[in-house]
Amino acid sequence: MKSFLYASSFFNTMRKAILMMLLLISIAVAEEVDLNSAVAIANQYKHVGEHTNIVPQHQISLGEEAYWPIELVSSTNKIVTIIPIAVSDGSIAEGDNAKAVQKVHYLANFFYAEKQIEDFIDSSRDSASRMQADFQSRLDRLNTDIKPTLPVSITSLSAYENALATAVSSAEELRDTALELKSKIKSIDTVEEISQCQSLFNSFFQKESLLINALRELKERASDVREEINTKIANNEIDESYGISLSAEFLISGIESTIIDMEDKSKENRENIDSFFSSLDSTVDEYYRVLDQRIAERENNTVKSELWDKYRELNDRYESIVKQIAKISPAHRRDLEDIASDLEALANYIEKENLQKANQMAESLEEDISDMEERVGEWPPKCTGGKYWNGEKCVCPSGMKESNGRCVKEEGNLLNIVIAVIIGIAVITTIYYYSKGQKKEEKKEEPSSWSPYNFN
Q1: In CATH terms, is domain 114-253 a member of 1.20.120?
Q2: ∠ at Cα 444 (443, 450), nearest 5°?
Q3: Which of 9, 168, 341, 421 could form a disulfide with 135 if both were Cys (CB 3.0 to 4.6 A apart)?
């Protein structure tokens, strides 16, 4: 017996384990909404002339849910709104979640579409990389080749060396920040990355500004060194040919134009980025307003479509009743005219999108038509309370009247009959006795048949 119980317990445990495993498998293989399905959902909300798009193609993570950010794009290729569709079930995000998805995707789309910003970052990175290599080479040459062979001391050389080292580190920092920023704007998939991206841009422009200042400083310090060398040449402290050759080492060609070009591009792109981030919230607010409007329109159209279906159903039922009008009493045919009028009103309400009144009218028509269908279905109608159908309506038999839905004898009817009978009997009796009296009188007046002359 114990072995049987153990076996039973074992099989129950195994059964539970199998059920749990099947449940986990079913959860694991639950079908997610793919991009094509998400686009099909978004297509339900577009207007004439609009099309759907998703650039870049990515999912946006928000908590435990991921969303497809499908764009509705106008005929002029302007984003009208962004529809955030849940990967798990195809539902549309609402409220702050919807705004968050829209904001993330708009940011990603902006940097994907605005190629000049990416080009600017690439250009700044390449330029910083070249400057870092050039300045590092100059710094190495200064310490290994120039300083050890100087015949005289040049006091401005120390400041130049510091400026050169600062330029090297500034260029290196800008290069690294540009690399990080480029990577960030290529993959913006979460809300947290919005602030990270904005912070990186601030850091990038700050590093660029520091490099521009370092270049200015380097330019000044290099000029000081060359000026000091020229002075020493003039004072015959160093050989002229050597001095000219040495001065050339501190000539940084094109540094002025580089500074000007960097300043102009940095200002233009910084204004562009600052303007974008400052308008981000208002842009997303507009996207959300349009999204909310499109959802309401979709719901409105769904209700409107359902009401048109209801109208067609009610109208078909009405026409079916009209075909059986012979079964409807003249007293109730007026109701059909009212139903026809209400059906016309229902169509007008739906057409003018007065859906609240349309709903109320549809409910009223449902009751009226159902009532009329019951009348048609019971033909002739079943009369109750002692009534009978006279071809038009239920009526009480002759000599009876309706009271509380039932037929009752009219008051005084029996008494009238009794009186009539009594009067009749009295009249008959009077006539009878009157007739009898007349006969007696006739017998009295008749002469006797006996006569002395009558021998019979």
Answers
A1: yes
A2: 85
A3: 168
